[in-house]
Amino acid sequence: MTDETGLPGVPGRTVDTPHGPGLLQVVDADEPVALLLLSHGAGAGVDTRDLAALAELLPPQGFSVALFTQPWRVAGRKVATPPATLDAGLAAAAAAVAESHAGVPLVLGGRSAGARSACRSARDLGAVGVLALSFPLHPPGKPERSRLPELSDVGVPVLVVQGERDTMGRPEEYPDPMPDGVEMGVLPGADHGLKVGARAEPGQDDVLAMLVETTLEWLVREVVGGSV
C-alpha cells in the first residue's frame, strides 16, 4: 500500500500501535549492514527534505532506511500526541522492522520530536546508535527549558545534526564539550527544517549532501566500525 501521509512513491504497510495505526515505509539496501528507523517531527511528516534525502541516498551505501509515520498523522490530526505515545509508536515500528530485518543492527533516529523519542527509546529498543536531526534543545525563545538531559543518558553513540540558524537550539547553545558519546554536525545557514535561503551559499542541495555525508561517515565509524 501507499499512503499520502508518508513519503511519495515508497510502498508502506500499517503498523498497529497502542494509539492507532502507524505507517512504515522501508527503502532497503541490497545487503544492509544496518537499518535506520526514522520518525518525523511534530509539524510535518516523513516527506521532509532531510528524511527524504537519507531514504534516497543511504541505501546505495549499504544502509536500509525505514520511515515511520506516527498514528496521529496517519489519522489526519494537525497536532502531535504526547511524548509517551510517540515512544509507544516507535517501539511498535521497531518490533515490525525486527521481524523483517532479523540480525541487522538498528539505529534509531528522526527529526525534532522524532529525535527526542529516539533518544528516550534507544536503550529499551536495543539500538546501536541514534541519529538526532534538528534536536529541539529548547522551545523557541525559551532557552531556560533545556532538553539536554535527554541527550546526556542515551547509552549509545549519538549524532546530532543541527542547522546553524535553528531557533530551537543553535549549535553554540550546546555545551562544549558535548555529553559523552554525543557529537554534532553543523549545517551552515540551515534553520530548524534544515532549509537555507534561496540565494544562500552553500545552497540547499549542497546542505543536504553535507547531511548525508556527515551521517554516512558517523555510521561507518561509530555503528559498523568501518566495515563498509
CATH third-tier fold name? Rossmann fold
Q: Compute the number of strand runs.
A: 8
Low-confidence stretches: none
Write down the Rg: 16 Å
What value does the average pLDDT take? 94
Q: Name the strands of the widest sheet in spatial order.
A: 1-2-4-3-5-6-7-8
CATH class, named Alpha Beta
Helix content: 25-40%
Give the strand content: 15-25%
- Which sequence of SSEs, written as H and E, runs from N to C? EEEHEHHEHEHEEH
By CATH's scheme, which homologous superfamily applies?
A: Alpha/Beta hydrolase fold, catalytic domain
Distance between the termini: 32 Å
- Inertia-based shape: globular
CATH architecture tag: 3-Layer(aba) Sandwich
Biggest β-sheet, characterized? 8 strands, mixed
Find the structural class using helix and strand composition: alpha/beta
Total helical elements: 6
Q: What is the domain total for the residues?
A: 1
GO molecular function, one term: hydrolase activity
Organism: Nocardioides bruguierae
Protein name: Hydrolase
InterPro entries: AB_hydrolase_fold, KANL3/Tex30_Abhydrolase, NSL3/Tex30
How would you describe this structure to a colleague?
This protein is of the alpha/beta class and 228 residues long. It has a single domain, classed as 3-Layer(aba) Sandwich (Rossmann fold). The protein is 30% helix and 22% strand. Strand 6, helix 5 and strand 7 form a beta-alpha-beta unit. Helix 3 crosses helix 4. One of its GO terms (molecular function) is hydrolase activity. This is Hydrolase. InterPro entries: AB_hydrolase_fold, KANL3/Tex30_Abhydrolase, NSL3/Tex30. Keywords: Hydrolase.
